[in-house]
């Protein structure tokens, strides 16, 4: 998909959701069902170690200090997205258009290369590599939160064709947006309402409830628990919650970071053992940039709690899900957790 | 997917969304990527005319009065869903489970057979057939709204594999739920907020704005307009809005019904001309059952406006969309409308 300098963000007047419109429209002839179904073969993969000069504008690198081999000089590497929807340069330019609202598509779009090797997932390279990937997530968020135009940074991973991935090389993505995305705002609002009523963090309560009941828990480590949520949207959906209450992922301590590498690696391996060709997405939900712009977020530190959600992508959503926002779960969270505990 | 009598509805404590959990869980071995990818061939299709005895419990039929041929004795036919998630019999049974909330999966799940013939879409059978399909939608909603346990009835269509359809026979579906689904509630809330601020219906305002600007309008008939929304979620998304303000689809007049058949047929033909193998969903958003249960809905007649949304399904959603609720539109609504006007 082509992009130019003038992508714009538009607000849905009914639902309050922002969307990005590419300035240079893709014509109908370029649409096929499943645009993303072709993979990239190793020979033509410019994300592999040794071909760094072909991807311009390196943003960050976790260096392999011990290696003298040119093809092993880094462990993780961050580069700009090839076709960024959100761009760093420019002003927000909030303005109206008739009855509608729009602004410029300011933000950041980055590719986090999770491994120097093609087709080798970080969880298969040992805990140290997974820790480096998580450290890269943390460092990028910490860097981007200094930009006061940016309200939110989402880290996400697409694995497999059904999850929207078209690269054979293991990568995560980062998108920073000048607005708080709708799904995140819904979580913030839900957590705020719960806090207003209970004077407790809903995530802390969910954690206690899940550990008490046990039937939906898959794994528990020193600092984290992984469980299938009571009202999962998709079968085998898994949330990883830190035990220590904290709204911001980037405040993770180094012992917690290592522990997150352990539980995330274990969960991905369990899912892939149960479903060898699994497509999945995962993403981190953390607090918005904490520049105190609005009173609305003043309790944020107390009422929000960062977490990671893993969504297996088995099923095609139908008109029922799109039209209603109501999901049907063919496998109960209790049974899904049991299958996952046992592998 | 198997179902038993004890499906349950569960409420997501954070997002307020209800989901349905099947009582008899599908085991991991029965999951494949894209469960729905096999179609049904005509020879084994029990929805075709002449095989009525193989689908029990006929709910409604639009008779072909002029035909003496046994295989043409009806034009549209409604039967119970083969594996209903929502069942008509029973009490709601709202109750708690630890910190969570649940209830029984009361409701209705019906299949609306849109044509007596396999692989023949109603829009290819002429306007009379499309009118009969819409009349069937109306009659089913009018019947189900008498059940005070049911809060909402969604009519939706899945066409093509990417849209979740696995039947070669043209059908729509109906799902009645004892709760207002999240997506519908968001529209009701958004429309209510707009009305509180402007003292006007947001849909009427959008209609006026679109007809004034013109660039996103595809078709205008006597009673309806079809346009690509300003902040579409998917490329070539199209909304059909009635010009007469009314919250309830089932109050459609007969001249409006014929006109809706015309504009819906035209839109589906346009989309299929531009994209011959298109998968799409459409659904009708109408007011919830108007049994006045809550003050919350007291302005409903003024602030909501029924409509039909058509969603082409070209792209696989990725972790970005699922994690953020933020959508990227590769073709602008203005360009999409232009392409659709010109076919």
Short description:
Two copies of one chain form a homodimer. Chain A is an alpha+beta fold and 343 residues long.
Question: What is the multimeric organization of the chains shown?
Answer: homodimer
Topology pattern of chain A, helix = H, strand = E: EEEEEEEHEEHHEEEHEHEHEH
Count helical runs of chain A: 7
Count of distinct strands of chain A: 15
- The shape of chain A, in one word, is globular
- Measured on Cα atoms, how large is the radius of gyration of chain A? 20 Å
CATH topology tier name of the largest domain in chain A: HIT family, subunit A
| Name given to the CATH architecture of the largest domain in chain A | 2-Layer Sandwich
Largest sheet strand order of chain A: 3-4-7-9-8-13-14-12-11-10
Which CATH class of the largest domain in chain A applies here?
A: Alpha Beta
Major beta sheet summary of chain A: 10 strands, antiparallel
What's the CATH superfamily of the largest domain in chain A, by name?
HIT-like
Describe the protein's architecture and organization.
2 copies of one chain form a homodimer. By secondary structure, the first copy, chain A, is of the alpha+beta class. Chain A folds into 2 domains: 8-177, HIT family, subunit A (2-Layer Sandwich), CATH 3.30.428; 182-342, HIT-like (HIT family, subunit A), CATH 3.30.428. Chain A is built from 7 helices and 15 strands. Chain A has helices at 127-144, 182-198, 202-213, 254-274, 300-303, 319-324, 333-342; strands at residues 8-11, 18-21, 60-63, 74-80, 95-97, 100-104, 108-113, 152-159, 171-177, 217-220, 224-227, 238-242, 280-285, 307-312, 327-329. A 10-stranded antiparallel sheet of chain A has the order 3-4-7-9-8-13-14-12-11-10, sandwiched between helices. A 4-stranded antiparallel sheet of chain A has the order 2-1-6-5, with no helix packed on it. In chain A, a hairpin with a 2-residue loop joins β5 and β6. In chain A, α1 (127-144) packs across α4 (254-274). Chain A starts with 7 loop residues before the first strand and ends with a helix. At the A-B interface, β2, β8, β9, α2 and α3 of A face β2, β8, β9, α2 and α3 of B.
